[in-house]
Amino acid sequence: MKQFVVLMILGWSMASNAYISVGEYLDYSGEDTPLEVRYYVEGLGNAYVASNVVTQRSTGDRLFCQPPALALRVEDFLYILDESIQRFDVGDLMDVSVELFLLDGLQHTFPCNA
Fold first, then answer.
1. What is the pLDDT of residues 30-70, one digit of tens each?
2. Which residue, of 12, 76, 83, 105, is most buried by count of CB atoms within 10 Å of its CB?
């Protein structure tokens, strides 16, 4: 049991450092975006899509209103993230995780009020 607790604590501490900042993303993004960055952004996007479904089922609200017939791909998530970052003056936000910008981009691209 003691080993399990130690492994859990190590896992949490490692996971807390597992993000890509805006600065890192801007350094890596472009036509040759590394696979690791593409997988990370795709994972974030898919997690937001899944969270959207769960939120809608439990509360009736959605985080963003993606058209039902539209399946988003990694290229879509990267484009939405790029557009979101461009809308902000990110000079002071280079250390912020791209997660917030992707969610903002999904909400801006697929607003529920439209």
1. 778 889 999 999 999 999 999 999 999 999 999 999 998 99
2. 105
Judged by phi (left if over 0) then psi (alpha if -120 to 50, else beta), residue 18 lies in beta
What's the 3-state SS for the chain? Answer: CHHHHHHHHHHHHHHHCCCCEHHHHHHHCCCCCCHHHHHHHHHHHHHHHHHHHHHHHHHCCCCCCCCCCCCCCHHHHHHHHHHHHHHCCHHHCCCCEHHHHHHHHHHHHCCCCC
Burial class (CB in 10 A: 0-12, 13-18, 19+), 22: buried
108's tokens: 């801006």
